[in-house]
């Protein structure tokens, strides 16, 4: 799980990755209990017989025997990693958005090509069309949208356009589900939606049976990959804290159901324009995070969890909170930032006359938008790429590489083009180095350094000003896979901000170096940055986060004056 290279290799678009490839290799397929012998090539049948005799988990886990403090849970994670592919060099940071709606959603209006053209114009390399799951979409929309996606792929040859859907997770919130393009992309999505969507199945309520259906849906997606029906599939939870109904134990259950499929959540929701003050905006809550507890909400979440903080979801923005609680178990969980585009602020289009809910239910779509003759200042969304971006480290510009990068956790996210690029590496005195999503194995007692290379923004963003990165924060947490005895735990016992660096006035490409001391126990480190316009002590107190994002004010949360970037973690594990 480690890779050695020199600490000075800090080109903007280069890194090193260990792969969690979901392009099914022979070992994964042969080890799969779902794939029958008839599904395998002769060589794979032979390999399966060998695995049955020897035991794949034992063979791979044995390779971690020299790692200090490694528990069976961490070894299991390493086993999954080792099964899934080889390390590869990051050659591109590809910006994208995995949460976008079209005229095939009952509450949206744009064509696929409208969303894709704007995404490409605003700098996105990849995007996912995720119309709402439900009876009409399952019956009509999932089929009807595909020709539009295929056509857009031909028109915008340099933009990777995935087909997905927004899953009504049984007993929980929404989530993005998408698959790699191929002959069965529609068939797999349609079967998944009909069999596992909470709305279609009447399984929205909070019950053990509905929670089990969500787990079964994730596992079913993994089986479709094992059977080679699709080359890859991913699930990420959307706006997870918005209604308080994604309980900690449900998130852990999704993650553990199939870590190849369930890889993360929106660290920052869409609808970022919703907080623009009335007069030139909707005057609502940023991200539409303006709700409170309901009958299905988890009672352990405080009132503050229903608000965004600096435009980010409380699960992610709270240092030592639920995201860190998941990471402290030593299991990957990624973040993203997306538009959730339905109807966009500042546009001049509308649905055509006669295109109402009745016609939508009958036809599975609204008519193509028409010119409205007026400016929409009450919509809460931005076009894809206009404000929020998810940057994925990829070996090449391909669908498979984007999905692999998401699974690997090679991800950082930003708002308002706060910076041009971020490179995060941990380096050990014994010569090892790893980047975002990676695990550095270092000899116990070796000294660990964190190297953060940032290219400051030098061109205007889409609100026509050049953002200024004025502070960078380093967050560190211990890894102990045994600390969670209650799966509804949402606090990490050790995670805190360990450094805050004033970067105001820094231009060009600059590097920040931090001494993390000598490694004795497993830990992770992650980084965030801000324009520092709005800060307050974190929810868990100033001793944990002295100056984190401020809670957003409902009706007065201009997103352009409160910009942040967040990175995924890098892990460090000592060896003997």
From TrEMBL:
<protein>
    <submittedName>
        <fullName>Histidinol-phosphatase</fullName>
    </submittedName>
</protein>
<dbReference type="InterPro" id="IPR052018">
    <property type="entry name" value="PHP_domain"/>
</dbReference>
<feature type="domain" description="Polymerase/histidinol phosphatase N-terminal">
    <location>
        <begin position="96"/>
        <end position="171"/>
    </location>
</feature>
<dbReference type="InterPro" id="IPR006311">
    <property type="entry name" value="TAT_signal"/>
</dbReference>
<dbReference type="GO" id="GO:0004534">
    <property type="term" value="F:5'-3' RNA exonuclease activity"/>
</dbReference>
<feature type="compositionally biased region" description="Polar residues">
    <location>
        <begin position="338"/>
        <end position="349"/>
    </location>
</feature>
<dbReference type="InterPro" id="IPR016195">
    <property type="entry name" value="Pol/histidinol_Pase-like"/>
</dbReference>
<feature type="region of interest" description="Disordered">
    <location>
        <begin position="1"/>
        <end position="23"/>
    </location>
</feature>
<feature type="region of interest" description="Disordered">
    <location>
        <begin position="338"/>
        <end position="360"/>
    </location>
</feature>
<dbReference type="GO" id="GO:0035312">
    <property type="term" value="F:5'-3' DNA exonuclease activity"/>
</dbReference>
<dbReference type="InterPro" id="IPR003141">
    <property type="entry name" value="Pol/His_phosphatase_N"/>
</dbReference>
